[in-house]
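Revision sheet: structure tokens.
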Amino acid sequence: QVQLVESGGGWVQPGGSLRLSCSASLTDFTVNVIGWYRQAPGKQRERVALIHSGGSAHYSSFAQGRFQISRDMARSTVDLQMDSLRPDDTAVYYCYTGGMNRRLSSPGDYWGQGTQVTVSS
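Predicted:
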């Protein structure tokens, strides 16, 4: 069973920093990709940053240079360090993983419940 639980959201002033953490329970699941998406009010969900199984990280253009994703295999967590935050970073941030459910022998995509990030003065 796969469960993703986010933490670390909140309110921050423009220019500030937040660190999001995703605690991942990945029983019988082989991860191909894991990371973060976000959805702002009235907008579609968009990719923020992902780590692929080989360890490479990929960032959307708005995240490049300001956000850093990291994965701790021992703690089964995926963190997103967000610096130089702007008001347009305000969104619900979701942890995501895609891969293979070994017990069902089928691919699967899983999402956390989301954590709110608000950037305002």
